[in-house]
Amino acid sequence: MNKFIAKSESSIKLLNIAQMSSSLPVNILIIGSKGVGKKILAQNILPDASIFDAKTLEDTLIAKTANIEEYLEIIVTNIEQVVNKKEFLERLPNIKVVATTTYLPQEIEASFAVKLDIPPLQERKEDLDELIKIYLQEVKDIYEIKINSEDIEIDLSSNGVSLKKSIFKNSILKSLKDEDMYYSLEQFILNKLREEYNYKDLLEYFEVPLLKAAKKEFKSQLQMANKLQINRITLRKKLEQYSSKLEN
Amino acid sequence: MKDFYEQLIEHDLNPYLLFDSNGKVKSYNKEAEFLLNFVSIKELFQLAVSNASLNFGFNHKYVSLKYNKQSYYAILVGYANDDEIALRLYKVVSNSTHTIKDEKLKLVNIFSLIDLSKNSTLLHSKLEIDELYDISIPEVKVNINDFLLCLNECFTIFKHKEKISLQVYIKTGEYEIINQKKCKIVALEFKSEQNLSFDKSTEKILENKALTSNANIFFDHNSLKLELPIIL
């Protein structure tokens, strides 16, 4: 079981509340956007409980294909996706439910005496730093790559999920050697050729990253042309041709 | 004979008060004495004056009044001269008995529930709370789920305030008869420095939540009081 990272003030409070309510006979609702650690916190509250996806469990309950009454406590993920939320909870009497959701559905508000609202990672700086440290260590252990956190463009759009993805992706990309690059390009081009791409189409996959990198590195088109050793008019034409992709 | 009528009034279940022309109480019965714990003399005098008949005599008026736990459905105002005015309030009496099912009650430390509700409801709030707890309060049997929901609603009211005080104490001299046993009452008094305005729907929600958790709730201009019987 993963440990809920609680380094920031709000996370420490959340973990305390979770621990306080774990022994009480009340339902607990954990609210937060994707990747904030809802499921991990739920597992910290009920470490031995079975985990069910809410929508799947709803279908099972309606079809009566499982005997849910044998459980004393369960974790239900994504309860917001259940169609008849109130009915769904009524089908779980005498069971302690710890549910996760991305928002608070009004119709089930009264069914949960304890509600834990986890803020996004962006608002929990200490937790973010700790998670970056953990993921970088994982990268180091798996791929034997040592990367500094400053060299990584982190993505927090889906909190912990996108953070981990961005760290792994960045670390692997930054550690690519020439032969890795040739190999990955070869595989990529092979797939594109099967989709009937021609030489001109494929040229874009070399030119766009080249121009993006040059734009980052050099201050003016004159400097870019000089360093890349191509004609300024050709450069301008290329920049115009790929303008939409370069902006992205 | 006069003495008999006085005794009759004294033992009446409905409150009776006699005021002089300046609003001072000249006489009152036992029930009125109890009522004066919750409402000021001035307010009752105003009630009498504003509902008195135009000429000497008696005036009945059907009203809906609530002071503390007690509701009143009518008042009688009477005066025979300019020096005295009498007020009698008619209680709403219910003979329904309230029984609490024991199987849903669990023995719990009330302060841990207060802490849990406070921390989860005010997680992202900056409300400062001055806590004054009587730690001698024993573990009490409550329906944890319903009581927590009720507490959550109470804390939510103050979520955007700056500062409140929360006093938890056992009420002296007041009891509730629950399941034929005399129970002491614990009061949770949330007090704000600013005035609180409760709309009817909020009051209704809170009253329902309190009722389901076997508690009573009282609203004042700057405070909210939750009273819970101590079932051991």
How far from one another are the termini of chain A?
A: 39 Å
CATH fourth-tier homologous superfamily of the largest domain in chain A? P-loop containing nucleotide triphosphate hydrolases
How many H/I helices of chain A? 11
CATH architecture of the largest domain in chain A: 3-Layer(aba) Sandwich
Query: SS-based structural class of chain B?
Result: alpha+beta
What is the terminal separation of chain B in angstroms? Answer: 48 Å
Question: Overall pLDDT of chain A, averaged?
Answer: 92
Q: Could you name the CATH class of the largest domain in chain B?
A: Alpha Beta
Number of strands of chain B: 12
Give the low-pLDDT segments of chain A: none
The CATH architecture of the largest domain in chain B can be named as 2-Layer Sandwich
Gyration radius of chain B, in Å: 21 Å
- Percent in helix of chain A: 40-55%
Question: Main β-sheet of chain A: number of strands, strand sense, barrel status?
Answer: 5 strands, parallel
How many individual helices of chain B?
Answer: 6
Briefly note the CATH topology name of the largest domain in chain B. Heat Shock Protein 90
Oligomer: heterodimer
Q: Which class best fits the helix and strand makeup of chain A? A: alpha/beta
What would you call the shape of chain A? Answer: elongated
Q: Into which percent range does the helicity of residues of chain B fall?
A: 25-40%
Q: Poorly predicted ranges of chain B (pLDDT <50, ≥5 residues)?
A: none
What does this structure look like?
The complex is a heterodimer of chains A (248) and B (232). Chain A has 248 residues and is α/β, with parallel strands linked by helices. Chain A has three domains: 9-119, 3-Layer(aba) Sandwich (Rossmann fold); 123-174, no CATH class; 178-247. Chain A contains eleven helices and five strands, in the order αβαβαβαββααααααα. A five-stranded parallel sheet of chain A has the order 2-3-4-1-5. Chain A is elongated and about 75 Å long. The two termini of chain A are 39 Å apart. The mean pLDDT of chain A is 92. Chain B is elongated, with a radius of gyration of 21 Å. The mean pLDDT of chain B is 89. In chain B, strands 2-1-5-4-3 form a five-stranded antiparallel sheet. In chain B, strands 7-9-10-12-11 form a five-stranded mixed sheet. A two-stranded antiparallel ribbon of chain B has the order 6-8. By secondary structure, chain B is of the alpha+beta class. The longest helix of chain B has 14 residues, at 144-157. In chain B, 28% of the residues lie in helices and 38% in strands. Chain B folds into two domains: 2-91, PAS domain (Beta-Lactamase), CATH 3.30.450.20; 102-229, Heat Shock Protein 90 (2-Layer Sandwich), CATH 3.30.565. The chains are: A alpha/beta (248), B alpha+beta (232). Chains A and B meet through helix 1 and strand 5 of A and helix 4 and helix 5 of B.
